[in-house]
Amino acid sequence: MIHPIDTPIEFEVSIGNYGNKLDTNVPAQSSTTPPSNPLFDGRQYHYLPWFEQKPCVVVDSQWEDCTFRITSMNILYSMADKLETGLVEVKKEMSVELYDIDAIKSQLGDVLDDFIGDVSQGLPQLPDKEVTKLDRLRRGVRVKELKELERAAIYLRNSPVKLEDMVDECEDYINSLRNLAIEPQQCIPDVIVWMLAGRKRVACIRIPAHKLFYADGKGRGQLCSKVQTLFLAPPTVEEDEDLEDLKDGAQVRMMLWLEMEKEKSHFAEEVKLIGGDFAVYAETYENEACLLGRWGTIGLTRPNWSDSRGKIKQSMDAFDPPPHGWSWDGPWFQQPELSTMFDMDESRDEWMEEIYENQARYPLSSWPDESKSYWTNVTGDAIKENDGKEEKEVTKDQLQCPEGWLWKSDWQVDIGRAVDDEGWEYAIEAGMGNWVPYERNGYLFRRRRWVRMRIRDKNAKVVQKKKQKREAALKEGWEYARLAHLTYHITRHPLDFARRRRYLRKLTGDPRRPAIFHFKGKERKKKKDDDDEEVGNQQVPRIFVTFSAPAHTYQLRAYIYQARDMYGGDKSGLSDPYCLVSFHTSSDRTRVISETVCPTWDQTILMKSIRIFGDTSKVVESPPPIIIEFMDKDTVGRDEFIGRTEVRPVIRLSLDTPGPRLDWFPIVRYNKYGGELLAAFELLLDEGNELPFTPPTASPPHTHYIVPSGIRPILQKNRVEILCWGVRDMKRFQLLPVMSPLVEFECGGVAVKSKPIKNTKSNPNFPDPVLSFDVLLPKEELYAPPLNIRVMDKRSFGRCPLVGTHVVKCMRSFIVEPKPSQSHKLAVAVAHKVATPTPSIYEGEVTVVVEDVKEALDSDPDSQKKVEFDWWSKYYYSIDDPRRTQQEYIDEGYDKMKIYPNDLEESFNKFEDLAQTFHLYRGKGSRDPEELAGESVGLLKGSLKVYPLPDDGSKEPPPVFSKTINTKPVECVVRLYVIRAVDLMAQDPDGKSDPYIKVKVGKGGKGKKIADKDGYIPSNLNPIFGKMFELKAHLPIVSVSIILSCVCHFCQEYNCCKSQH
């Protein structure tokens, strides 16, 4: 998976300075792959044709022997990874709503038993020599900590601890092991894999050396000898968000191995196990240039015999004699570079042919008609065909289908790019590029892309004829290019002025001896501002791993069902998402779903004829990953990247293997939360064996495959009842306040809208708050689609812009089973339902609920007022204050009041018994559930009820919500009982304050205020007020709750205390 690049690609592996091809201070090594031309996969990306002959690089380096340090480090990391893997499985089981605690505890016990067994084995002994004092001290600390972890794990295994506490304790074990594994004396630098395009380094990845180190047992690195997939990123990226403006990057599947020189044979044995054999070749190129229609050495910008870059002069005779310890195995022979041997449509059953229609005009004139258009390819070269006598230019209607192919469709204008309505893109000068999708007077050239699908002709005679034609072209061995440093190809084009021919000669010998050729003569240097100014005159042979056995053919089926909580790529907070599915050397895309962050694609992607070398058991053990990239379709400019996920397919060598099931996969956007994807993937062995039936196609006008019935979830008819109560605290949109909002609810492709609010200032509640709709939802809650909430503002001239969105990710908490005998009572009593809080013990600051509001508070508890029992008697008795509690009050048997140690919202479920609070978001960004709600642009008050409907024709249950709910504002009396304040901020020079109470209901200048300036308490930071304040307010117009301020009497500052309830 490589982004489009027009120059040859090679990869370099280096460790420190060793392997760096630009550093002449170290010996030359076989650290780079042969330069190869990237081939387009027909959809999105390019790939390198490394099939049965795969390049191999070898880098020799010299470092201090720190094997004992690396093995100890890897053992500790392996312990942590194994425990973490088991813990992930336990957490997955705990994610189910009704899970079996005993079964999960038993599963976690098995994980702890394995952990105890690993920790008890300890660490290997230190060698007798080359050990520092820090090594001994470090090992002593590690051994002590491991014994402590073993003791703690045994105690946790045998003690009756809550499951959640056991999981938290295991996470602490993982963190402790990772901290112990840190090695301050790691002397081997990281291994860096570079991607080079021509003379430029465009992408890289850094891998810690200890992860690739070979050792016996658990001391081996976790990535050593494993075929893995690496993602290369541009080296100049400082932050992840900078990747949005960069295109360079690649996905590389490779096997890395770092070992001591004396253990070099292990790598060769591992290569043989996967079915490969080593082959070493000396390489040289014969170069020619075309001058005045003749090919020769006149006009060459490089030696007539050189390396692949044309910088080192090396004829065939210069390779004799071979390096010490090596010998020739046969003569020189011609073999074109791997990528030039394949056409762009190689290994494809379908291909999209393209041709560009170009037009030019004079300044201030109109565009010519279609008959005066000229036709070119994407680079601007005229398309020519040979009719047997001469080459002549052709139009799209005269273009013949290539040999071995058949036309599948007619020519169509490609409007799926950044073009105008007719598919044109414009430029000042055609050769300069910089095409734009709009027209201006100064633009004198325009073009549009015509596309036509063709399919491969499976006729055996046609295939054999094409094969013979290719073999005839390969006999000559010439590769052609426009210029010597550009991409080469096997077929000559009219504008090619350079060609070369590659010669190889096989070497055999002792692999422990370096195979380096030294050439006589001065080294070729370029200008000082060139990156490749210094080039050595040493040359190393090419190393390949060749697979003699034929490749196995597979078929990939990707079942893309839906996604949720995706990144909002547009200013509205929504996206137009589609998926790019990449696997091995193939890629494909889904259809575009407009204006949503929870798309439902319901699409199956088939990738046929996928060739993978190696034994099938290796594919089952380590299947290649499937990369799904999510893009936001934009009409102007480049599509925006909004997330990526990596999954492993289910390998099915036969139909006896169980098929895949839909599952949620996390989407990541630059290491941040980007949503979730519901999909399933399977890789089928396609070698004449029986395959599952082809998925059915969607109903017209769509032509894609849908998810088959065996994979898609089973649907059931459900009813969704909605109580959209009102909106609160809506922020301005486009400088105007949100005055007349309406809300739309959408789930499973079914949507319903509310009536707009006339004016949020007079009443922020909806006039008819109860809505309902029927929708087909999966029976399994795991597959349930999200509920999308969109709030729009009805404005003048028929405009209704989107001002806020919310996604209900999981509707599990809203599922009810209404009983016919109680549903009517529920509709009436839902507005009066009060949750019962759990009793709590008084600790520190408290919130007091007064049961009898008729009792007045005495402003001074220490006054000489002759009252036998006042409110303070009940208060001190309730907080268990023996010094101030009156014994007579206890003897009379009076009750205590309930005192809660936190806000009432926490004790009474945030007062969401009637309506929940949904935070609304707007603009570009993710919908991470862990993000703070303070970034929202408003609140929606409402509730949801979801319940299944009978499918046997029986009577439907009555509605849950009553349609006669009154949403008009209500005048209320707010009574505030202020008991005391604790630890106020000092404002006076003596370290005291003179606080009094100031109460405000509502916000802005229209809020009601009460200021008790005369009742200030002098020189006190812990005052006891004991006062009651009463105000009138209209709810819900007063959306902001009561603000209580303790104000310093003299300085009139609010810095003493400020609380909001």
Automatic annotation (TrEMBL):
Gene Ontology CC annotation, any one: plasma membrane
Chief localisation class: membrane
Signal peptide limits: none
InterPro entries in UniProt: C2_dom (IPR000008), C2_domain_sf (IPR035892), C2D_Ferlin (IPR037723), Ferlin (IPR037721), Ferlin_A-domain (IPR012560), Ferlin_B-domain (IPR012561), Peroxin/Ferlin (IPR006614)
One Pfam family from the record: FerB
Keywords: Membrane, Repeat, Transmembrane, Transmembrane helix
Taxonomy, superkingdom: Eukaryota
Membrane topology reported for the UniProt record: Single-pass membrane protein
GO biological process: membrane fusion; plasma membrane organization
Residue ranges constituting the C2 domain according to the UniProt record: 539-665, 700-824, 955-1061
Compartment annotation: Membrane
Family: Belongs to the ferlin family.
Protein name, as recorded: Myoferlin
Native organism: Geodia barretti (Barrett's horny sponge)
Lineage, opening ranks: Eukaryota, Metazoa, Porifera, Demospongiae, Heteroscleromorpha
